[in-house]
Recover the amino acids of this structure.
C-alpha cells in the first residue's frame, strides 16, 4: 500500500473506543478475543428432564389406556418432574419425546400417547398385525406443546390389544423413556 507522507501508526482500540451496538460485522483473528459480551445470545434448553424405566415391568390390560411409570431420572434440571409427570414452571414451547417398548402374548397393536393436562393427546401407533400376532412392539412419538409455566403438565400413556403383556425395560439401553426440554424461541 502506498502512503503520502509518513506511514500511519497502529493504535490499539480499548473497550472505551467500542460502544455497545456499534459493530455489525467484524473479522477477528482466532485467539484474539478472550472475553465477549453475549447478552441475549444463545441460552439454555431448560427446564429439561429425562426419565426411563429400569429393573421393573408394568402390566398391560388389553384395550385399557394405562399411564406409564418411569422409575429412574437421568436428569431433571429444574426439579419439575415428579410422579411420572412433567410440570414446568417456565412458560414456553416444549419438545417432548417418548418411546415405549412392550412384550407379551398375542399383540395386535400398541399405541402411545403424550397427554397434556390429562386429555390433549398426541400419539403414535404401531402397525396392526392383520390376523397374525407378534410378541413385542415398540412405539415412539414426539410433539411440541405450549406450556403455561404454572399448571400445564405432560404424561405418557399406552394402549394395546394383547392377550397378556407388559411395558418393559432393557438393561442394555433406554427402550422405555420420556424426555422433554424448553425450546429457545
Amino acid at each position: 500500500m502506498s502512503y503520502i507522507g509518513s506511514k500511519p501508526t497502529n493504535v490499539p482500540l480499548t473497550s472505551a473506543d467500542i460502544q455497545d451496538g456499534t459493530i455489525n460485522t467484524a473479522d477477528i483473528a482466532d485467539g484474539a478475543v478472550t472475553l465477549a459480551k453475549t447478552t441475549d445470545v444463545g441460552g439454555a434448553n431448560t427446564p429439561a428432564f429425562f426419565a426411563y424405566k429400569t429393573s421393573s415391568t408394568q402390566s398391560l390390560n388389553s384395550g385399557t389406556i394405562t399411564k406409564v411409570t418411569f422409575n429412574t431420572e437421568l436428569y431433571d434440571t429444574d426439579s419439575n418432574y415428579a410422579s411420572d409427570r412433567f410440570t414446568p414452571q417456565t412458560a414456553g414451547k416444549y419438545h417432548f419425546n417418548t418411546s415405549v417398548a412392550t412384550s407379551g402374548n398375542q399383540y395386535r397393536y400398541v399405541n402411545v400417547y403424550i397427554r397434556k393436562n390429562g386429555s390433549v393427546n398426541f400419539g403414535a401407533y404401531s402397525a396392526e398385525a392383520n390376523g397374525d400376532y407378534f410378541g413385542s412392539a415398540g412405539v415412539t412419538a414426539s410433539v411440541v406443546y405450549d406450556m403455561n409455566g404454572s399448571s400445564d403438565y405432560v404424561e405418557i400413556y399406552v394402549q394395546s390389544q394383547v392377550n397378556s403383556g407388559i411395558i418393559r425395560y432393557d438393561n442394555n439401553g433406554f427402550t422405555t423413556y420420556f424426555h422433554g426440554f424448553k425450546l429457545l424461541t
